[in-house]
Write a structure and sequence with these properties.
alpha+beta, conserved putative lor/sdh protein from methanococcus maripaludis s2 fold, Elongation Factor Tu (Ef-tu), domain 3, OB fold (Dihydrolipoamide Acetyltransferase, E2P), seven-stranded antiparallel sheet, five-stranded antiparallel sheet, 33% strand, elongated, transmembrane helix, transmembrane, Beta-barrel_RND_2
Length: 383
């Protein structure tokens, strides 16, 4: 009995040691798992604002303004051709002399802005002034003779009433009076012509404009018909280009060409009017196309210009266009924000072609009918 009593107390101590040792590894792995899961959750929350598209939902998305979008449109059966041209002034005048004489004064120089009626050049008018003075003196003499004839006619009429002279004498007096009046009128007209001739010795600006060229110097001999200056109106300018007959006939209806002038701002403008002259040059088989520029264009006559004409071509592939302001460029990357369902904007890289005014051709990256955001910065907030 004594041995059994001593063996029983030692059995529980032997069995309890393995249980305590088996529980310690399980608790350590549990603590490590909890720590790992917490670290992953913290990492996800740290990167969530830059990658999660749902960060702008709810009240924050409602505060953003509505995106302005445009639909990518396809234009089939047309292509754009370029032709070289020159800037011309619609109103350009060669100021020439109407009389002969030496140039005695030049009041302006090339590039000056002049007003209508402003003196440009003076020609020696001494001989013309003397002729005008002589004509004025003759007018005075003719008026004096007219006064004498008038008094003589009055006396003859009084004598005729008293039967002191015959009817024939009165008729001669009236004829003499009419001849004197006609002579005075003739002298007056001659004096007016002489004064007008004197005015021809002063060249004036025909309208408000700019002096383009001065082709004379003081001392040159002016001759009738010889151009001495060139004046143009800067408010009315146009571009003239020679276009082949085939291109002029294929001009797309309803589409205006565009004018490109290097160095001008903006570089491309849409003309106010397009005129195709009917005459064909027999040597080059071309037509002259004139495009009126908008008022205020910062160009000058003689500048090089290029016109881009939309031509209708049968069988030409469709071309895709979007507004140029929808493009987003960063370095060598060109992309657009495509707005999908729910107003979500996704950045998509595109390959663009030629720009035509306010629109740009897209060669690859989007399809016809897709919506693109017009303001890339506003669209970036909705990613």
């Amino acid at each position: 009995m004594t041995e059994m009593t001593t063996a029983l107390p030692t059995q529980p101590s032997i069995d309890s040691r393995p249980r305590v040792v088996a529980r310690r590894p399980v608790a350590a792995w549990a603590v490590a798992g909890v720590v790992l899961v917490g670290a992953v959750l913290l990492a996800i929350r740290a990167f969530a604002p830059s990658t999660a598209p749902v960060a702008q939902t709810g009240s924050a998305a409602q505060d953003l303004p509505a995106l302005q979008v445009a639909i990518a449109t396809a234009a089939g059966g047309s292509q754009t051709a370029a032709f070289d041209g020159l800037v011309q002034a619609v109103r350009q005048t060669s100021v020439a002399a109407q009389v002969s004489g030496a140039v005695v004064a030049i009041e302006v120089k090339a590039g000056d802005t002049v007003r209508a009626g402003q003196v440009l050049l003076r020609i020696d008018a001494r001989a013309a002034q003397q002729t005008a003075a002589a004509a004025t003196a003759q007018v005075g003499a003719a008026r004096a003779e007219q006064e004498v004839a008038t008094r003589e006619l009055e006396r003859q009429r009084a004598l005729f009433k008293q039967n002191f002279i015959s009817q024939a004498a009165l008729d001669r007096a009236e004829a003499q009076y009419k001849s004197t009046v006609a002579g005075a009128a003739s002298q007056l007209a001659s004096a007016g012509a002489a004064n007008t001739q004197t005015d021809f010795h002063v060249l004036r600006a025909p309208y408000d404009g700019v002096v383009a060229e001065v082709a004379a110097v003081v001392g040159d001999m002016a001759m009738p018909g010889r151009a001495l200056m060139t004046v143009y109106d800067p408010r009315a300018l146009r571009v003239s280009a020679a276009v082949p007959e085939s291109a002029a006939a294929a001009l797309a209806p309803g589409q205006l060409p565009q004018v490109e002038i290097r160095g001008a701002q903006p570089a491309r403008v849409v003309p106010l009017n397009v005129q195709v002259l009917p005459a064909v040059d027999p040597a080059s088989h071309t037509l002259e196309v004139r495009l009126d520029l908008p008022a205020g264009s910062a160009v000058r006559p003689g500048m090089f210009a290029r016109i881009w004409m939309p031509l209708t071509v049968e069988g030409a592939p469709a071309r895709l266009f979007i507004p140029s302001q929808a493009l987003w460029r960063q370095g060598e990357l060109t992309a657009v924000y495509v707005v999908g369902e729910g107003g979500r904007a996704l950045l998509r890289q595109v390959r663009v072609g030629r720009a035509e005014g306010e629109r740009t051709e897209v060669l690859a990256g989007i399809s016809a009918g897709e919506r693109v955001a017009l303001d890339p910065q506003a669209a970036a907030q909705r990613r």
